[in-house]
Amino acid sequence: MKVFFWDPRSDRQQLSEDPHRPVYHFLPPCNWMNDPNGLFYWQGRYHLFYQFNPTSPLWGKIHWGHASSPDLVHWEDHPVALQPDKGTSDANGCWSGCIVDKNATPTAVYTGFVTPHQTPVMMAQTKDNNLILWEKSPYNPVVDKPPADVRETDFRDPYVWKEEDLWKMLIGAGMLNGECAVLLYESTDLVNWSYMGPLFSDSIKDTHTMWECPNFFRLGDNYVLLVSLFPDIQGVYYYIGKYNGETFQPESQGYFETGRTLYAPHVRWLQADLGDRCIMFGWLREDRNEEAIERAGWAGVQSFPRELLINPQGALVSRPVAELALLRQESQSLGGIQIKPGERYQLPFTENCLEIEALIEAKGGLVGLEFLATPDREEVTRLWIDFDRNQAVLDTSRASRSLDSYHRKGTINFRNPSPKQIKMHLLIDRSVIEVWFNDEVALTGRAYPTRGDAKEIAITTKSEQAGIPYLKVWEIGTIWPVEKG
Ligand code: DQQ
């Protein structure tokens, strides 16, 4: 099979001066990336594949890009793993899928894109321990078309796992009756698949026509189904329930994340030195127009790798993997901060690649964190904690003077009733913002300040009694050897 080679280091080097380009979130050397695919631990390394257009920073003929890591945070680029092949069932794209271990042979099961009406299931394998050289299966496509009651344009993204000697596969789908569904298939060899019917279908909102990128995995005594709501990127939704090998009965459900930034997460249990963990990467979309993306020469970032858990209240939650500690550099701790309404408490550092952990207290009203902020606040991103409404708002409406970037207010409701104290865990990586509250709900967003001095951080309040009993900040270093470190 042909291998698409290029020199990733020179592209990374050239783009590394871009002030919006993250340094500790994974992204390709250049050009377009969307969904994470094929997360896999093999021979002591983590492998991440991703939807990649190697020739443009806009979505186009999609290949599988590839990188690997010894520790889930420092990455090395590899050649493109899968590329579309003319005249075959992936002629116009190798879309999303996963990798499984078939008798010690890493095997990719993915979506072939021919036309929107033809998105068969494809297979490729590698004997190469570095997962560089892949061979597509002579049996392709292994599933050529959807069942009759499924819309043929809404059938993609195989998710495969093994139960004893049987392979199971879910495919994201939209049914002719208007429901979203995950379709269950079974196989003994990954080649011959029998359709068993929808494992589960639902219609949580009339505006969704299908579920993309399904993930189905065990967490404790439960099973979790995690789906991306299509069209128009309407968030990521989960169901938690019981699975008996044939049916899935959800017992609870909710948004894993709302908003337009995080989409198409890919989840796998990875067995490595740190024990078995349920790991997720998710595509973080750009929030600026195509002209800005073309000027930048790149688009799309992966979320910081997250570990998924079910919390004691029974909700699906995530947290950054513990390996984040490997990237921490200088730190400072502050405590006992009291702020009066209208006051601004300036934090004693100016940076835009940071991690901040804080406890924030108030009896009511609003406490705000300003960051990516210019001294005159011409540009500022604000994170408001609203103790009256019991929610947080990530406000990028003044993040940038540029008309090319979109301005949003992303809101998340806290789950515990009316807390007086909120634990916040914030990652800022140039244009990327990921924040968790109380180890349960998360918000993700993008901000593109134009000024080089947009690096101040401060706390403000509109509450009579607000305090920060604890705040710790770390500078976070790069995950790439060739960039700033
Ligand atoms: N992206 C892939 C599809 C998937 C969608 C194509 C989700 O397989 O459904 O790039 O972002």
What would you say about this model in short?
This protein has two helices and 34 strands. The chain has 485 residues and is mainly beta. A hairpin with a 3-residue loop joins strand 31 (432-437) and strand 32.
Strand content: over 45%
The N- to C-terminal Cα distance equals 36 Å
Largest sheet: 6 strands, antiparallel
Estimate percent helicity: under 10%
Which stretches of 5+ consecutive residues score pLDDT under 50? Answer: none
Topology record:
Layout: H1 8-15, E1 31-42, E2 45-53, E3 63-69, E4 76-82, E5 94-102, E6 105-112, E7 121-125, E8 135-136, E9 150-163, E10 166-175, E11 180-187, E12 194-202, E13 210-219, E14 222-230, E15 236-243, E16 248-257, E17 262-272, E18 275-284, H2 290-296, E19 298-299, E20 301-302, E21 306-310, E22 316-320, E23 328-339, E24 344-346, E25 353-362, E26 366-373, E27 381-386, E28 391-395, E29 409-413, E30 421-429, E31 432-437, E32 441-446, E33 456-461, E34 466-476
Parallel strand pairs: 1-19
Antiparallel strand pairs: 1-2, 2-3, 3-4, 5-6, 6-7, 7-8, 9-10, 10-11, 11-12, 13-14, 14-15, 15-16, 17-18, 18-20, 18-21, 21-22, 23-34, 24-33, 25-30, 25-34, 26-27, 26-33, 27-28, 28-29, 30-31, 31-32
The structure holds 2,5-dideoxy-2,5-imino-D-mannitol.
The site of 2,5-dideoxy-2,5-imino-D-mannitol has 13 residues, from strand 1, strand 5, strand 9, strand 13 and strand 17.
Would you give an account of this structure?
This protein has 485 residues and is mainly beta. The protein is 3% helix and 53% strand. The protein contains two helices and 34 strands. The strands form seven sheets. The chain has a six-stranded antiparallel β-sheet, with no helix packed on it. The protein is globular. The two termini are 36 Å apart. 48% of the residues are buried. The structure holds 2,5-dideoxy-2,5-imino-D-mannitol. 2,5-dideoxy-2,5-imino-D-mannitol binds at residues 34-35, 51, 62, 95-96, 111, 156-157, 212-213, 263-264.
